[in-house]
Amino acid sequence: MSEALTLNKITSQRGISIGEAAKRVADLGWTPSYVQEAMTFPTDYKISKAPRDPMKQVLRSYFPMQEEKDNRVYGALDAALRGDMFRNVEPRWVEWMKLFLAIIPFPEISAARSMAMLGRLAPGEELRTGFTMQMVDEFRHSTIQMNLKKWYMENYIDPAGFDITEAAFGKCYATTIGRQFAEGFLTGDAVTAANVFLQVVAETAFTNTLFVAMPSEAARNGDYALPTVFLSVQSDESRHIGNGHSLMMSVINDPDNHLLLERDLRYAFWQNHAIVDAAIGTFIEYGTTDRDKKKESYAELWHRWIYEDYYRTYMLPLEKYGIKIHHDDVAAAWDRLVKKNYVHKVAQFFSVGWPVNFWRIEAQTEKDFEWFEHKYPGWYAEFGDYWKWYAKKSTPGQTNMLFDQENGYVYPHRCWSCLVPCLIREDFCVDEVEGKLYTYCSELCRWTHKVAFASEYEGRPTPAMGRFSGRREWEEVYHGWDLADCIKDLGFVRSDGKTLVPQPHLRFDNRDMWTLDDVRGHTIQSPIVLIREMTPEQREKHIAEYRAGFKINPVN
């Protein structure tokens, strides 16, 4: 008997295919038929057809593959350091990575948590294996991204900001937008959040801009570490897309789900556009120093990956199953990018509030102006003077841009749904929900809050949908605070107790550094608090003036 079980005989046995192994693993699942399992993560969807695992993944093949990827990532980071990468990398780019790498690990962890939700919901055992692998993927992604952040912190000339990203995330003037994105994977109906918002839209459509366009721009700025990490992350996305599509097709199988799926596709696409395009568009267009006119702008990348690849080849075919696709929403998103200068207004907003961020934001230069005008005709007329003001106001002793009265910038309201400010002023919306006034950046964000996230949708009860609640807007939290006290509370002060972590320039001499004394004496005001305090007549006048917009004054 012992002779029959020798190691040589065991290892020399003929193997089975990955597909057969996946089938046998699925057969090990045991769902008792004599008891009704409690719905831990509620959904209003009906899922009766067991989804299939398109990738047939098993641990035997999964872990060696991921180990090889990790070895390549860490080996490349070591090689970059030995090659003295930080002598050539552009500081402007690395500074914006403080924001990017503060945000992105949190969506990865949220995605991992959301797979537990889907694993409990999906009938049958087959796709549960796929969701398990995806959960491990997301943990891996977060880990190597956190390691990259630590690597930057240890080697970059100004590590301040990298060291506080975990504490800064979620309470910073800008990162609250990223928090809204990540929490979209977890909140509300489990299928809405984890399947539609995350897998069907975020991973299928917008990871191209996140994990392909960003690495490309990083390499153009002398950063070869970020491409190594994020292309390794992107290599897992095809499996995640397959998981999401498989579950969605099992949902489509029941016509009772069509109304909910139409709602969720609409909500998820618009939220991803509003948040991802705001952040990634700004990183790619304003974090770079490479102004090669032959390279694609963010709008051109968006048209190729979101419009052509996702909308035309993924969304449109769903119509043959009876799902209504809102084509006008896609057109509206495109118009916001190319006609309404959405990304450029976001960059303007981020820079206005530089004292309450935790990274350096450098003014755009004449070289940048020329490139923007080439790619976005009319850009200079709207934004040129603003960036000249920003450069002028970058030295200590000047009034910071957040409170400067000379330049003409008018601080925006913030959208309650996506948490991106209402920057396209002509689209500004105000409405009441449950007796309380809210502001929105667009009609679709108003619809999201008032209609999509309600207890009933078009006459159908939707108790599993979540609700937007709490003190979500950054300005409301610090309403009435002195700017210096706010920065101290945020923790955005360096070790000397007075010098700010954020700076409006890339000058590293201590004489050029802003301190708490340079920003003291300005009181933060919350637009949502102020508009709620207005009389109806005052509010109507204010809304009309806000929608009319503002014009930046010429620089003296």
UniProtKB/TrEMBL annotation:
CDD domains: AAMH_A
GO molecular function: monooxygenase activity
Keywords assigned: Monooxygenase, Oxidoreductase
Identification of the protein by name: Methane/phenol/toluene hydroxylase
